[in-house]
Amino acid sequence: MALAPALDLDWQTAPRDPAAWLARARQVAEVLAVDAAARDRAGTAPHEQVKILKDAGLVTVLGRPEHGGGGQSWATALRLLREVSTADGSVGQLLGYHYLWAWAVRFFGTPEQIDEFEERYTRANLFFGGAINPRDKDVTVTDDGDTLRLNGRKSFASGSAVSDLTCLMGTLPDGRPAFVIVDSNTPGLVYNHDWDNMGQRQTESGSMTLTDVIAPWSAAIGYRDKQIAPLVYNSLSLLTLQLIMTNLYQGIAEGAVAEAGEYTRTTTRPWPYGGDNKESASEEWYILEAYGDFRSKLWATAALIDAVNDELSQLLHAERESVTMDQRGHVAVRISAAKQRIIKDGLEITTRIFDVMGARSTSARYGFDRFWRNLRTHSLHDPVAYKQREVGRFQLLGEFPEPSFYT
Fold first, then answer.
1. Cα gap 253→45, rounded to integer Å
2. CATH placement of domain 232-397
3. What is 18-124's CATH number, 3.50.30.40, 3.40.50.300, 3.30.465.60, 1.10.540.10?
4. Assigned CATH for 128-228
5. 217-241: per-residue pLDDT in tens?
6. What is the pLDDT of residues 94-107, one digit of tens each?
7. Which of 38, 109, 213, 342 has the most CB atoms in a 10 Å sphere around its CB?
8. What sections of the protein cross the membrane (predicted)?
């Protein structure tokens, strides 16, 4: 691994335990924080930031040690993406999605595919992107004998334009889904660079056009002799994505409070017209009350999220055939609870930080609004009201959430 840019950090030696990996992620966050606000304004493609993730070893933290990977658990990987997200929600999202797609062969693949793809990406330190939005139904997959041919369009191809490998989803003529992994520079893949949203501006989440993209049948994950055998374990992929989002939101909110606190301590002026004048803003009672509220809420959401991280991680590292629908249901409702809670508290916190920083904090040069914009943008991925309903049905009726593309 190379030296970290911008800071004199030696990343030649890989961390050996979860605590050391978390410390490494904090170093990455320090590097990203240096120009996070400027990059958010520019909205440029995060090629250099993906390289930082690679140099730091975070890309292969889930890879097997015999392939040069970190050999860590999903509970650790989720904490790493959360830490990165405190500095840059866009890069945190890309890292989390990379972990999801790098695990795709575990979710869906044959044992041979698992061995092949995991060794390939780990040894070469490859980064994943993907275009698998299930609401896009216009990618057709044609069986040409030994190969597959993909045509159509996908929106939200997050990270693909800055990745090495891309996960694609389409539909075979008989209605079966095809999840295919291809090189990101495969002929026929066109990145439209049309991502122009108010938040998560560096995720390269624009659309992708596929024109006669050719892939071998061996790239269709889970298929053997053109047949596929479903497992309950397959559906953990959707829960993992939801928990990645949940950790992303926690990281964004934590980053907002950290940056707001630094600004309040160093720049915010006390209010001189309240009849209880203080020498510094840090002594203002209403400011202390607000930060106490922020911290209490984030400690509570972090405790819930950490517990759910452990619960899902145990299933993800279990024997695939052993995972039951009952186990899936228990963790699904807990993820829904954690996600809806951090969305509500996170949006409140990223709005209220301006109350305790003051009017001058709205200057564009600080970019403090990016925390709210990032959280508001990504939390619309699927309606939070449905997460609340899932928890409500469990509490009132004892029913687990129905498996879907979003649960």
1. 23
2. 1.20.140.10
3. 1.10.540.10
4. 2.40.110.10
5. 999 999 999 999 999 999 999 999 9
6. 999 999 999 999 99
7. 342
8. none
